[in-house]
Amino acid sequence: MDQFINFLLLFSALNEQQIALLQSKCHIHDLQTAEYFSQAGQTPQRIGFVLEGIFRVCYYDKEENEHTRYFVEENNFIVDLNSYQQKLPSTEYIQAILPSKILVLNRSSLAELSTTILDWDKIMAQISARALMEKVHRISPMLAEDAKTRYVEFFHRFPKLANRIPLHYLASYIGITKHSLSRIRKEISENQ
After folding, report:
1. Is the domain defined by 2-138 classed in CATH 3.40.50.2000?
2. 3-class SS shares of the chain: helix, strand, coil, % to 5
3. Whole-model pTM?
4. Of 100, 69, 22, residue with least CA distance to 173
5. Do 102 and 28 contact (CB within 8 A), yes or no?
6. What is the DSSP-derived secondary structure letter of residue 93?
7. Which of 40, 68, 107, 173 lies deepest, with the highest CB count within 10 Å?
8. pLDDT tens digit string along 56-110?
9. Residues whose CB is less than 8 angstroms from the CB of residue 186 and which lie 6 or more positions away in sequence, other chains included
10. Which residues pair with 96 in a beta bridge?
């Protein structure tokens, strides 16, 4: 819980009563590997804050091929923000790729915080703006590059994630098969 409070304090000061209210509205959930926090077709009714673990945001194309858009690690929110704000069914899945622990706030709790904590809407707006910028940064902008360059670039951009993500999800994120990724990794290790 302290992780979450410290994160919020980056955006605004909160007094003891506000922190106590926040703590009373949050619930901690454990998710196992491959368990979904939210699924496409459902309207999000809650947001999560990752305390431990990694999540991936993915979708399925018309041919039922799975594509990983980006990963979310500790000290970040997980939610399909547009669907949550517009109260529309999500087009994405949010899935734990490691055993994970999240702090969850439901829509009614967030509404109560908005009416009770004076700067809450300002805090959430700042967090949303930051999350959108990070989302743009995380969605693979390197697809015009060759596969080896995309793999190397991922390690440079996300060194904390690189060795924690299963290879088949990493392959999906950079847009190649797991077999191709294994070949690239072998080639790089032989050249070092």
Report:
1. no
2. 45, 20, 30
3. 0.88
4. 69
5. yes
6. E
7. 173
8. 999 999 999 889 988 999 999 999 988 999 999 999 999 999 999 999 999 999 9
9. none
10. 55
